[in-house]
Amino acid sequence: MIARVWRGVVARDRSRAYVDYVDATGVAEYRRAPGCCLSAILTRNLEPDTVPRQPDDTGVVDAGPRVEVIAFSVWVSETDIQAFAGPNIHAMVLYPEDEEYLLEPPTLVHHDVTSLAVSATVLPTTERDF
Predict the structure, then answer these.
(1) How far apart are the first and last CA of the chain?
(2) Domain enclosing residue 65, as ranges
């Protein structure tokens, strides 16, 4: 099995909307794709809210607190990933509004061979607010 991981960075105040967008586009396609066994969206704050913002050398002020959004999926084979992503499985599959949210263009999709074990324990259905 192969884990496919894609990372993007968004402003914290837009992160909920972006997670909803990623869920409705890419992750929804993962769920429909043959060979995709699991999909999830992970998030993490990249710095505390109290980090002061200063203009850089060009006078641009940093966008403020940021969130890393990770689209994670597990696939049976590279052939299944190719059916989703195209012949170059390392190419990112982006959607029209991604550029409106992303603070920096994502540069990498990576793949890791994994063994997937699923517990019989029922996972909680609540989600964390951010």
Answers:
(1) 31
(2) 2-53+61-113
